Every structure is written in C-alpha cells, then in structure tokens.
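Raw record, unedited: Alpha-1,4 glucan phosphorylase
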Amino acid sequence: RKRAETSKKPTDPETVHSDVLAKVEFNSGGNRGQVTALLAYQGLAWNLREHLMERMIATQNLWREKDPKFVYYLSAEFLMGRSLLNTIQNLELYEPYAQALKMLGYNLETLAEKERDASLGNGGLGRLAACFLDAMATMNLPGWGYGIRYKYGMFKQIIKDGEQMEVPDVWLTDGNPWEVRRPDVVFPVSFGGKLKKTVTGSHELVEWIPDEQVIAMAYDVPIPGFNTQNTGNLRLWESLPVNEFDLDAFNKGDILSAYNEKGRAEAITSVLYPNDSTPEGKALRLKQQYFFVSASLQDVLARFKKVHGNQFDLLPEKACFQLNDTHPTIGIAEMVHLLVDKEGLDWEAAWGITTKVFAFTNHTIMPEALEKWPVKVMREFLPRHMEIIETIDTQWQAFLEEKLSEMPKAEKQAAIDRMAIVHPNQWNKEEMLVNMAHLAVVGSHTVNGVAQIHSDIIKSTIFKDFHGVFPLKFQNKTNGVTPRRWLVFSNTDLATLITEALGTQEWMTNCKLLEGLKPFAEDAEFRKKWSAVKRKNKERLGAKIRELTGDDVDTSSMFDIQIKRIHEYKRQFLNVLSVIRRYNTIKAMTPEERKSVVPRVCVIAGKAASSYERAKDIIRLVGAVGDTINTDPEVRDLLRLYFLPDYNVSLAEVIIPAADLSQHISTAGTEASGTSNMKFQMNGSLILGTMDGANIEIAEEIAAIQGPDAKVGDGLFIFGVDAKDVPKLRKERKEFKTDPRWDEIMDMIKKGTFGNDKFEALVDSVNDMTVGNDWFLLANDFATYLDVQDEVDAMWKNQDEWVRRSILYTASSGKFSSDRTISQYAEEIWDVQPLAVA
Ligand code: 26M
C-alpha cells in the first residue's frame, strides 16, 4: 500500500522517525535520548494529527466549494475508543510507521495501548454513532457528527470484594492529540429567565431574557475514512463561563463565589451520564442536551447564512439532522426558536422547515427509558422552548381533531390524549410531562428503528397511534458496524487470511464480497488456517485474562463470551444459572464421565449503571460463582467463569476475535438490535441467542448462505420464547411451573453455596412468582437454554463442522457493515450524495 498522492507530508520511515523525535522534543519537552513509551505514543500521535488536518481541510474546502447537502448526526454519545491504529491504518501508513517506531525501539501495537479510550458513550447507541462516522467518512458522504466533549467519560469499573466500584474516567490529563481546540468557533447558550412579549397588531413578538449564559467552544476531531482522502469531522462542544471568574467577588475576599460561574458553566460538559436504557430525569442532563444541540444548530445556521443569506426555505436542500434517540430532540424546539425569534420567520414557515430537516432514530422500547421531562423543569431552564413545545402540541392536537374526525368522540379524544406531547404523569396526575419521543415523531419527517423486528414493534406499541396517522413516516434501518475497526484492524491475521483467499482486499469496503469465502468452508487446509488464527487470538485473550485475574486458562477450551451492559433484560443472570448447572453436572460425574466434558472458559463483562442494584447483584454473583468454580480442583480444568473488569471498546477488540461462542440471550422483543452480535459474526464466533433484535437478520443471512434448503436458525444455537408470545406468557407467569433444576440452583444460591448471602433480592426478582416477578421470563427460557447448550457441546466435538460454520458466519456477515446501513440512511432518509476529494 502506498500513501495518498496528494499528501504533502513525507511518510518514509526515516522522515517519520525524525518527525516523531522532533514532536517528542518540541511538543512534549521530552529528551530525544530517553523516549519513553508514552512520549513515543504522543510524538507519533502529534505527527499523525498533521496528516489528519491536511486531509480534513482538503475535504472541507471541497465541500465548501461544491455546497452539497450535509447530514449532521446529533448524538449525546460517541464511543470512539482509541484512535492511533485506526488512523495509521485508515491512512494506509502502517508499514512506514511501524518501521519508524522500530528505529525508536518500540513495537506499534504495544505503544498503541498507551492511549486512553475516548469513552464518550454508554454502550450500543454511542458505539453505533462512532461506527456511523467511520462509514460516512469512508463513503465520502458530506456529514459531521455533533456532540459533547465530556471531561469525564464512562466511569472506570473496578471490582472490589466482588462489587462494582465506579471511578471517574480522567481521560484528558495527558492531553488529546486527536482533537483541535477551536477558540474561533464559539456560540453563546442561554438558560432560565423570563419571556417578554410585545404585540404589534396581529403579530406577537416574543423575547427570551435568559438569566444564565455560557459559551460553547468547539473541538474538532478529524474522522479519517478508509482508503480515501476524505476526512470527516466530529465537532464536540465544551461549556465555558462567559466571564472567567467574578473579579468583583474575588476582590471583596469572596474567593469561593468568585469561581461560582466557572464551576456552574463547566459542570454542563463535565460528565457523561452513565445510564444505559434507564435515564434519570436530572436537570443537568437537560442542560447538557440543550447546550450541545443549540451550539450545533447555531453553527450550522451560521455556515448556511454565509452562503445562502436568509433564504431559509433552502435549508432542507442543504442540511438534515439525524436525532440519535430522543437525547437531542430539544433541537426541534430550538430550530423553531432560532428561525422565529432570531431570524424573524413566521411560525408556519419555521415549522415547515423544521419538519423537513429532522429525522429520528429510536433505540429502545423499554418504557422507563423513554425520556419525559417535567414541564416545571423545562419551563425553569428553557421558558421559550417550553412555550414553543406547547404551541407545537396545540397545533398537533388540532391537526389530529381534523384527521381523526371520523372517529367517535370519546375514542378520538383518547387517541389524541395518547399522542399528546405534553401530558400528565401517569403515576402523579398533578405533574405534567413533555414526552420527548412524541415531540421527535411529530417534528421529524422520518422515524426509524434499528433492526427489522424492532421497527415492526415500535409501529405496533409505543408509536402505534402515530403509525396510524403517518404510516409512511416509519422506516427500518438495521444497524451495522465498521468492518475496519471490528475485523480488519482488531483481527489482522483473519483479515490477511481472507484477503489471501479472495485475492483482493476490496471486501474491506464492499463486505458482500465476503460471500466469496463460502467454498473455502469446505477446504480442510483453509479450515486449519482459520482455526490457527482463532487459536492465536485466544492466546492473546488468555494473556489478557492472566493480566486481569492472575489465572491461566487453557486456550484449547471453548471460549464462551457474553459482553454488554449489565441489564436484567439482557439476562446475564440466565447465563450464570446455566454455568451453575454445568458445575453441578460435572461435580456429579465420575472421573471417567468427566473425560467427555467439553472444557469451557466462560467470560462475562460489562458495566452496570451506578444506581442499578439488580445489575450490580448480577456482577457480584458472577464473581462469587467464578470464585467457587475456578478454585474447585475437580472442575477447574473443565469449566471456568470470569468477570472481566472495565469492559470498554479496547477490551472488546481483544475479546471478540477470540470468541468461539458468543451469547445474545435477551428476552425476545426487548433488545432493539444489538451490535456486538454483528461483530462476533464477522469474527467467526458462533452465536447462541434468542430470536431478538438483529439476531434474527443474522440468522437469515447465515441461512441464506447455506442455500435454499437451510431454515432460519440453522447453523446458530437459537432458543427461547417468541416475541409474539411474550405478553401472554407474562400474564401467565404466576402459574408457570419451574424446572426442578432451576429450583435446585435457586436453593443453592439462597443457602450461600457461593460464599455470599446477599443474593436474595436477585433470586426473588426471577423467582417470586406470587408477586408477579420474572418480567424477563428467565424461568420460561431456562430449560430450552440448557438444551441448546448441550447442542453447543455436541457441535464442538465435531471441530470440522464447527470451523465450517465459523467460516460461513464471516462469509455471510456483509449485510452488517455500517457502510450498508449508512448508504440506506443516505438514500432513504437524508438524500445526501458522496463527494470525494480527488
Ligand atoms: C438517557 C438519559 C439520561 C442518561 C442516559 C440516557 C441513555 C443513554 C444511553 C439512555 C439510553 C441509552 O442507550 C440506549 C442504547 O444504547 N440502546 C441500544 O442501542 C443500540 C444501537 O441501536 C442497539 O443495538 C441496542 O439494542 C440498544 O439497547
């Protein structure tokens, strides 16, 4: 591979070597004679940043000149992970840079580990945004990400005496070479205060007189595309005080309040809320959301006005905004506010433009996760926006009156009430709430779910009435992941093997070409090479497990992995129950019988929201059961269970390529999509899962590659109840008769077999049928789960067949490239076209 022709910066190893040394000296004040690993990493990163800037500027210049339509991806989260290797490889500079480092006495991969993850996200939703940026840049689509530059990202998870402890993520102390501070790009953002209204004739002018103001300052994070000059941009906002500090208070000796304004302003972008799926209604969170959305819209409108003046009716031809869940939905009211109050448009024009530029993605149907802000809070911090939302709601309800005029009166009113944007809290009728999802649906031209089943479910559940009114507004966009980070760079040996087999590396940007691997599944020589790569990846994970736990594991064992946020609906508890069952079975065997047991190393990792007690119980249980099993001399050669601490993007990059089996076992109908399932499929890990989220489409693709006779589910280990049966089963779960093996395990946990007696609440949550528990139907799925685990073991004993399937998984994973997802967004929602730097 050679470097891109247009780059002005030399990239031969010698020049890179001396450039890096210069950075060590002039940027970091380091000594050329003593280049520590951290200094070498930084020198390298500062050098690469210049390549990135060069390309980003070339891209922006072209885009400014041609003025194409842009997409702005608004997201409270971007879970980027590390950038060093991603940058080097996207820029196709691996060879010269690896050599230059060798001259410095370092190995590139080891140095790369010096970088701290950019953990500006909770889980799937944030990582999806990062994959989307990669795909947009790679496909030369004019688009930017907009978000928040959190000073502290996702907390670091430490396990102390078996319990999760949260430690702040101090990720910026060594500086961040991947961002460029833009003191020239600043916008004021206001909060609070009151409204002043002046009526002239029939026209009412509203002026918002806020009582708090902060400054949003931009940081640009260049996003390199793979195999292209194009480099996108992720613009993150930092909140700063208007006045550095109150000199007056300081002079009066009031040192603490002198810093008040600074503290209050900086608090806004200080920390990522670590709740995944169960948001808390904290006012600061609303301020974060408004802060980044207001700055982003002001920024876009300022650029638009430079080119098009006040021809705002052109805006929908030049810009669209994708709302990543409801978090940026206040942008709908902000757009109306900017167009009406600042630009002087009338309401109808402003509303018409607004509904043409926003599109909304829903990522979950968990009722507690749907954001609803108390009107009281909204009015306090955003009085003008609250009023705008009330007007939108009034007009919306008037529209519905018309639209549903055929309905009987009571029925019609009930439907309107269900679709209201502002409505009473169902638990406390006194309190009025703003339903952000309803605002997002009303204010957007398109609403999408993130996998086919999920998109179908939202049309018949949370958005049922809306779907009746606007059937064409609803679409599906099945998620995808970037094959560069999640296969090419994190599993380089497999990528090399694939390229050898296919005779081209074009599959890296055209993933459907992976289907060309199909015949190789029948080739014994190729299967041998395929398993050798897996084994090497398992050695790498084995070393990681040793580093994190002190234990050695046998890499010939089956590596059985479940990694994702800890949540009741994801059912890590069910996984543990089957591990306990396996333990009991092995204990009851004779030494002779034990010879036929398939050895497994089970790994669970993931973070629990800080206040989510049941999730924290699950982490404790994994640890406690693991301690029992891993130290039992009769069992430890045949079964292990580890909870790996501080799951993040970088750990995922080591775990996923090493998986033989991965588990995606949510109660059917609860996991909107899942995205790690796609990463595991790409890396040839067999899947044990329920018919939920994207598992269904993965199963369809795996069936399709096997030919017309294969049925959906063939080649995977599928179990559990169907999504359509879940409501009925939930009603009947009081009468459900549990399996005796289930009862036995529950007794063991209760009586303290795992050296801990604090599991009562957890056990009750799935066991106390009389109080109507086990919402996620663990007991219903327990027996079939054990059965399918036996199928897994049987298949493992036939390694030829196992590896054959593994190859077919990778071969059929092309659909789940985020390139496919993003092309569909671009064509079916955004109407943006590629524009590549020559
Ligand atoms: C909201 C308010 C306050 C604090 C936190 C939140 C919040 C943050 C993240 C709520 C939900 C959040 O994430 C939900 C999420 O990650 N959903 C996942 O989205 C993935 C990408 O579409 C899907 O693959 C997963 O199935 C879905 O669970």
